[in-house]
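CORE FACILITY INTAKE
Project code: CF-77B
Contact: R.S. (postdoc)
Sample description: multi-component assembly, two entities in total
Requested service: structural model of the whole complex
Turnaround: standard
Below are the sequence entries exactly as provided by the requester. Do not edit them.
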Amino acid sequence: MIPRRTAHERVIGPGVVPHGVDPEHDALYRGRTARGTVTDEVLRGVRGRPFTIDGKAREKAPATRTQTPYVTGTSALGLKYAGGVLLATDTLACYGSTKRYKSVERVKRVNDKCAIAFTGELSDFAYVCDLLEELTTEDFCEDDGTTRDAEEIYQYLTRVMYNRRSKFDPLWNSFVVAGYDAKGEAFCGTVGMIGTHYADDHVAAGFGNHIARPIFREFYKPDLTEEEAVEIMKSALYACVMRDKQMMNKFQIAKVTKEGVSIGEPFAVPTEWGYEKFYNPTKFSPGGW
Amino acid sequence: MFDAREDALAGARQHANWSPYDNNGGTVLAVAGESYVICAGDTRMSSGYNILTRKFEKIDKMSGKTLMASAGFAADAVTLKKTLKARCKQYEFQNKREIGCVAFAQMLSNTLYYRRFFPYYAFNIVAGLDAEGKGAVFTYDAVGSYERTNYSCQGSGQALIMPVLDNQLKTVSPLVLPAASSATPLSEQEAIDLIKDCFATAAERDIYTGDSVELWIMNAEGVRKEEMALRAD
């Protein structure tokens, strides 16, 4: 027996419109055939029309939208230094709490002046990448020797995110935008799921807001060299991977400088899990045993 | 048949439902004098217990004689200002002059009420110089009710600052005859000092107010800015 596939959605199952959804279609198969009488009882669970969207059922069904994310990336970090801006993420996309895709590049080069990193839903990010790709093509076709700078990309993303939240159909992402603005100064900003946005010397989207930002606040100064900035970034990533269960010890740091965007090779940071406190977290706590 | 399954799904939902709104906090304040107006706001932007940034400016110049300050949901406030700035430009092209602060105040009210059933979650103050060059302050609620006053405070520190302003700036009732000016009697410098004290005080108790306060001072000479550091904790 071929098992019947279960529909995940009431209108379109995976490949099948189930029996009972389209009465007109069902009526065609009801009645006497060469193999005997076909009743609704017999049909239930066997007949289905493959790969068709049933318009009538679509009208009856309530509108559905992304109300929960499925495949998600966690923190994205951004840090300015004297010669440019750094972006950092890990390379993990989780399915709930499953570490599902372990080599996902969560940074995108938009053009020579701008790169973005994301947190949240992977497929929504792919959609945003399409939008940005369209912009880049437009820029190229205009052939006027200018490209949109990082602040323009940031403002554009803000409008996209805000418009979608206003339609009650949000894109489940936040972004870190890094690069150069129109004046040729380094730019580092973030855009949230409902359009909240700000630019600062260092930013973090997602859980990194709690864990990486305090480190940035303590060590940031405007005249950081690239080496110092990378060191700070690595210690922030270390802190994140130790405390964020959705973070993996495989990171990428991208930098945007006057020369353009370069996305680094994945690397790991040395971690230490052998602390006494990790084996026995309540040992020295008051009231613990 | 589907309802039962949907109920089961609803019970199994693991994520918090999203909200199209956030409160990013912040306090804004304005004081009108006989020939000046001061608009002030702190520069902290928060979300829950997080400080997102310490240099988020809440005040914008909308036209030559109009300033606007907003607290509340930052994305709404920025969008609102962006829309209004575009309208100010259109006004200029159509009328060959900049929009005045009284007309702008009415436009803001209309814009807010237009969104009565999906409001901009922003608490605004408009400050400017009217046609006679007198200071004017307009204070709003989120859905467009507004009033011309001499001083006002909105946002997370409102409850801490407003009573102080009431006490320090109360003036002659507009009902009294013969009519007397209801502008604040303070000099420009006295008003600046009072505003700085107000923000320093609010920052002591309100976690959403702090980092620094910017003051935009507008008079016949033009607009100038002052800044003072506040508690950063």
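Facility notes:
- Residues 74-95 of chain B form the longest helix (22 residues).
- The helical segments of chain B are 2-12, 74-95, 101-114, 158-169, 188-205.
Invoice: internal transfer
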